[in-house]
Amino acid sequence: MEHPPRxxxxxxxxHPEKETGTIQIETxxxxxxxxxxxxxxxxxxxxxxxxAVSDDGIGMDRETLSLVFEPxxxxxxxxxxxxxxxxxxxxIVKQNGGFINVYSEPGQGTTFKIYxxxxxxxxxPAEVAQEPTIRLEGTETVLIVEDxxxxxxxxxxxxxxxxxxxxxxxxxxEALKLARSYKDRIDLLVTDVVMPEMxxxxxxxxxxxxxxxxxxxxxxxxTSNVIQQKGILxxxxxxxxxxxxxxxxxxKVRTVLG
Length: 258
Known about the structure:
This protein is an alpha/beta fold and 258 residues long. 31% of the residues lie in helices and 22% in strands. The strands form two sheets. A five-stranded parallel β-sheet has the order 6-5-7-8-9, sandwiched between helices. Helix 5 links the parallel strand 5 and strand 6. Helix 6 packs parallel to helix 7.
């Protein structure tokens, strides 16, 4: 049986130090809001079904990641790849009103997330559940660490809007300098899990040396199952997947702070 392009790529990207590799497939329903789409022109606000395909292979650097959907681009040897598989998938998803996000770091595997619009069905008033209300405003100090500029800007914009004092850094070393020089209390660290210099757990432990009271909210484009299997995070920690909505992110921050 011929495997789809993403599965072939995951198979071929097996880490050289491992005898076998793992491919995970996950699905869930998500809502994408206008704030997220304002920085991601490929998507439109609405309800989507997300299909995630993750591997634990060699990963990709930023240059490769930027070219991954280009027709005829391939990192494989001559005769082993045409460079058309992912570009074809990209075209099919776009034609059906969807979009694709890719998350990858060298040595940390890759996750492709495909978002396809959900078919809306009529719902009677009796079936509509009332969502519990939660206060979204806060005055605490939050340090955000994220190497994707768009995500960093979005998270900062959300927390600024709800009244938080926000410190922002796009690299772990920059975050450490900020934390060590900041004399007041840092209430919450919001950090990406997988980053080039160190992972989010290592960063939290270093920041806790000068700010032992700090709480932490981890975020990642990798799915929670993939993150747990990497052994970076323990069960029961606070975690949010990217992309997130304004309301979802603000609620999660407020929940962690208590």
